[in-house]
Design brief:
Length: 199
Protein backbone atom coordinates (compact mmCIF):
# COMPACT_ATOMS: atom_id res chain seq x y z
CA UNK A 1 0.00 0.00 0.00
CA UNK A 2 2.71 2.51 0.96
CA UNK A 3 5.18 0.99 -1.50
CA UNK A 4 3.64 3.03 -4.32
CA UNK A 5 4.79 6.34 -2.81
CA UNK A 6 8.34 6.47 -4.30
CA UNK A 7 7.03 5.58 -7.75
CA UNK A 8 4.32 8.24 -7.61
CA UNK A 9 6.87 10.85 -6.62
CA UNK A 10 9.60 9.94 -9.13
CA UNK A 11 8.02 7.89 -11.94
CA UNK A 12 4.28 8.52 -11.75
CA UNK A 13 3.13 7.25 -15.15
CA UNK A 14 4.75 3.87 -14.59
CA UNK A 15 3.34 3.67 -11.08
CA UNK A 16 -0.17 4.56 -12.26
CA UNK A 17 0.09 1.75 -14.81
CA UNK A 18 1.06 -0.62 -12.01
CA UNK A 19 -1.95 0.43 -9.95
CA UNK A 20 -4.27 0.31 -12.97
CA UNK A 21 -3.16 -3.26 -13.65
CA UNK A 22 -4.44 -4.41 -10.26
CA UNK A 23 -7.67 -6.33 -10.02
CA UNK A 24 -10.74 -4.58 -8.62
CA UNK A 25 -10.36 -6.52 -5.36
CA UNK A 26 -6.73 -5.42 -4.97
CA UNK A 27 -7.67 -1.80 -5.69
CA UNK A 28 -10.29 -2.02 -2.93
CA UNK A 29 -7.57 -3.17 -0.54
CA UNK A 30 -5.79 0.17 -1.10
CA UNK A 31 -8.67 2.14 0.46
CA UNK A 32 -6.98 2.47 3.89
CA UNK A 33 -4.16 4.48 2.27
CA UNK A 34 -5.93 7.87 2.22
CA UNK A 35 -7.55 7.18 5.59
CA UNK A 36 -4.12 6.69 7.21
CA UNK A 37 -2.13 9.24 5.19
CA UNK A 38 -4.61 12.02 5.95
CA UNK A 39 -3.46 11.75 9.56
CA UNK A 40 0.07 12.91 8.62
CA UNK A 41 -0.65 16.62 7.98
CA UNK A 42 -3.30 16.68 10.72
CA UNK A 43 -0.94 15.39 13.44
CA UNK A 44 1.89 17.58 12.14
CA UNK A 45 -0.37 20.63 12.41
CA UNK A 46 -1.34 19.67 15.95
CA UNK A 47 2.28 19.33 17.06
CA UNK A 48 3.38 22.46 15.22
CA UNK A 49 0.56 24.64 16.51
CA UNK A 50 0.55 23.44 20.13
CA UNK A 51 4.16 22.46 20.90
CA UNK A 52 6.47 24.31 18.49
CA UNK A 53 4.48 27.45 17.69
CA UNK A 54 5.19 30.13 15.12
CA UNK A 55 6.29 33.72 14.92
CA UNK A 56 4.38 36.23 12.80
CA UNK A 57 6.59 39.29 13.17
CA UNK A 58 9.67 37.74 14.78
CA UNK A 59 8.78 39.14 18.22
CA UNK A 60 7.65 36.01 20.00
CA UNK A 61 6.38 32.47 19.60
CA UNK A 62 2.61 31.98 19.38
CA UNK A 63 0.88 28.68 20.10
CA UNK A 64 -2.66 27.50 20.56
CA UNK A 65 -3.84 25.39 23.48
CA UNK A 66 -4.22 21.64 23.00
CA UNK A 67 -7.87 21.81 24.06
CA UNK A 68 -8.71 24.36 21.37
CA UNK A 69 -6.56 22.56 18.77
CA UNK A 70 -8.39 19.22 19.08
CA UNK A 71 -11.66 20.40 17.46
CA UNK A 72 -9.61 22.09 14.73
CA UNK A 73 -7.63 18.98 13.85
CA UNK A 74 -10.77 16.82 13.87
CA UNK A 75 -12.42 19.24 11.43
CA UNK A 76 -9.18 19.41 9.40
CA UNK A 77 -9.14 15.61 9.12
CA UNK A 78 -12.82 15.48 8.12
CA UNK A 79 -12.35 18.23 5.51
CA UNK A 80 -9.25 16.63 3.98
CA UNK A 81 -10.60 13.09 3.94
CA UNK A 82 -13.98 14.44 2.82
CA UNK A 83 -12.29 16.07 -0.19
CA UNK A 84 -10.69 12.79 -1.19
CA UNK A 85 -13.92 10.82 -0.82
CA UNK A 86 -16.13 13.44 -2.51
CA UNK A 87 -13.81 14.03 -5.46
CA UNK A 88 -13.19 10.29 -5.74
CA UNK A 89 -16.93 9.68 -5.96
CA UNK A 90 -17.15 12.39 -8.62
CA UNK A 91 -14.39 10.64 -10.58
CA UNK A 92 -16.53 7.51 -10.53
CA UNK A 93 -19.68 9.44 -11.47
CA UNK A 94 -18.01 11.21 -14.41
CA UNK A 95 -16.80 7.84 -15.72
CA UNK A 96 -20.33 7.25 -17.04
CA UNK A 97 -19.94 10.22 -19.37
CA UNK A 98 -16.74 8.72 -20.77
CA UNK A 99 -18.26 5.23 -20.95
CA UNK A 100 -15.54 3.61 -18.90
CA UNK A 101 -15.97 0.97 -16.22
CA UNK A 102 -15.35 2.15 -12.69
CA UNK A 103 -16.59 1.78 -9.13
CA UNK A 104 -16.67 4.27 -6.23
CA UNK A 105 -13.66 2.92 -4.32
CA UNK A 106 -11.52 3.13 -7.45
CA UNK A 107 -12.14 6.87 -7.68
CA UNK A 108 -11.38 7.36 -3.99
CA UNK A 109 -8.15 5.34 -4.25
CA UNK A 110 -7.10 7.30 -7.34
CA UNK A 111 -7.67 10.60 -5.56
CA UNK A 112 -6.02 9.34 -2.37
CA UNK A 113 -2.82 8.39 -4.17
CA UNK A 114 -2.88 11.58 -6.25
CA UNK A 115 -2.87 13.55 -2.97
CA UNK A 116 0.38 11.89 -1.82
CA UNK A 117 2.42 15.11 -2.33
CA UNK A 118 -0.07 17.04 -0.18
CA UNK A 119 0.17 14.42 2.58
CA UNK A 120 3.97 14.51 2.53
CA UNK A 121 4.11 18.31 2.37
CA UNK A 122 1.72 18.44 5.32
CA UNK A 123 4.44 16.92 7.49
CA UNK A 124 6.25 20.29 7.28
CA UNK A 125 3.49 21.77 9.47
CA UNK A 126 5.24 20.16 12.43
CA UNK A 127 7.63 23.13 12.33
CA UNK A 128 5.53 26.07 11.14
CA UNK A 129 7.74 28.43 9.16
CA UNK A 130 5.17 30.31 7.09
CA UNK A 131 7.22 31.03 3.96
CA UNK A 132 8.54 27.45 3.83
CA UNK A 133 5.13 25.87 4.42
CA UNK A 134 3.51 28.05 1.73
CA UNK A 135 6.26 27.23 -0.75
CA UNK A 136 6.19 23.48 -0.06
CA UNK A 137 2.38 23.46 -0.08
CA UNK A 138 2.26 25.24 -3.44
CA UNK A 139 4.70 22.80 -5.02
CA UNK A 140 2.76 19.86 -3.54
CA UNK A 141 -0.55 21.20 -4.90
CA UNK A 142 0.92 21.65 -8.38
CA UNK A 143 2.36 18.15 -8.35
CA UNK A 144 -0.96 16.74 -7.12
CA UNK A 145 -2.71 18.38 -10.08
CA UNK A 146 -0.12 16.80 -12.38
CA UNK A 147 -0.73 13.39 -10.78
CA UNK A 148 -4.48 13.73 -11.38
CA UNK A 149 -3.93 14.58 -15.04
CA UNK A 150 -1.50 11.67 -15.37
CA UNK A 151 -3.74 9.21 -13.51
CA UNK A 152 -7.12 9.73 -15.15
CA UNK A 153 -6.27 8.41 -18.65
CA UNK A 154 -4.33 5.45 -17.25
CA UNK A 155 -6.58 4.45 -14.34
CA UNK A 156 -9.88 5.12 -16.10
CA UNK A 157 -8.76 3.62 -19.43
CA UNK A 158 -9.60 6.56 -21.67
CA UNK A 159 -7.51 8.07 -24.52
CA UNK A 160 -5.16 10.88 -23.49
CA UNK A 161 -7.15 13.63 -25.23
CA UNK A 162 -10.41 12.60 -23.56
CA UNK A 163 -8.50 11.97 -20.34
CA UNK A 164 -7.40 15.61 -20.34
CA UNK A 165 -11.04 16.75 -20.46
CA UNK A 166 -11.98 14.20 -17.81
CA UNK A 167 -9.18 15.37 -15.50
CA UNK A 168 -10.11 19.02 -16.13
CA UNK A 169 -13.65 18.30 -14.96
CA UNK A 170 -12.24 16.66 -11.82
CA UNK A 171 -10.00 19.68 -11.25
CA UNK A 172 -12.99 22.05 -11.50
CA UNK A 173 -14.88 19.97 -8.93
CA UNK A 174 -11.83 20.12 -6.64
CA UNK A 175 -11.71 23.92 -6.94
CA UNK A 176 -15.38 24.22 -6.00
CA UNK A 177 -14.78 21.96 -3.00
CA UNK A 178 -11.84 24.13 -1.88
CA UNK A 179 -13.97 27.29 -2.04
CA UNK A 180 -16.74 25.64 -0.01
CA UNK A 181 -14.21 24.44 2.59
CA UNK A 182 -12.64 27.91 2.86
CA UNK A 183 -16.04 29.44 3.54
CA UNK A 184 -16.71 26.68 6.07
CA UNK A 185 -13.36 27.32 7.77
CA UNK A 186 -14.20 30.99 8.18
CA UNK A 187 -17.54 30.17 9.80
CA UNK A 188 -16.12 27.43 12.03
CA UNK A 189 -13.14 29.56 13.09
CA UNK A 190 -15.45 32.41 14.06
CA UNK A 191 -18.40 30.62 15.66
CA UNK A 192 -17.61 26.96 16.44
CA UNK A 193 -13.96 26.17 17.12
CA UNK A 194 -12.21 29.45 17.88
CA UNK A 195 -8.60 28.72 18.83
CA UNK A 196 -7.20 29.94 22.14
CA UNK A 197 -3.75 31.45 21.66
CA UNK A 198 -0.90 31.30 24.17
CA UNK A 199 2.56 32.85 24.18
Amino acid sequence: MFGYIPGLMFNPRKQWRNIAALSDENIKRLLPYPIVMTLLPVLAFFIGATKVGWSVSGDGIVRITEASAIPLIVLFYVALLGAIVFIGLMINWISQTYQTASFPIKGVVLMGYACTPVFLAGAFAVYPIWWLDVMVGTVAAIYTIYLIYAAIPIMMHVPWDRGFLYASAVFMIALVYVVVVLVGITIVWEYVATPVFTD
